[in-house]
Write a structure and sequence with these properties.
single chain, mainly alpha, 3 helices
Length: 99
């Protein structure tokens, strides 16, 4: 399974996530996983170019890396889920790109 690290998460947001987790009787990590899963479940699945019909498959030795999901749509999905649960807007600060 993949792991992610969320930097600069404000204390209020973390506290709200902890409250949600407690209400659902699960860990903070499990709660965030569920919110993320729900926020992208209706997003279209992206197919590698070679998987589109009438395209030649890449050589067996190449690795296929899926394109990154649109960050703004992911955040919007999280906010929709938070709103459904009675919580306000999840503000995610801009982070400088990693080097």
């Amino acid at each position: 399974m993949a792991s992610i690290l969320i930097r600069n998460l404000d204390e209020e947001t973390k506290g709200r996530l902890r409250m949600l987790a407690a209400m659902h009787r699960r860990s903070l990590e499990a709660e965030v996983r569920e919110i993320l899963r729900d926020s992208v479940k209706d997003a279209p699945r992206l197919m590698p170019e070679w998987a589109v019909p009438d395209r030649e498959a890449p050589p067996a030795t190449s690795q296929v890396v899926p394109p990154a999901m649109d960050e703004k749509e992911t955040i919007a999905g999280i906010n929709r889920q938070m709103e459904k649960m009675g919580f306000g807007y999840l503000a995610i600060p801009e982070n400088p790109p990693l080097e």
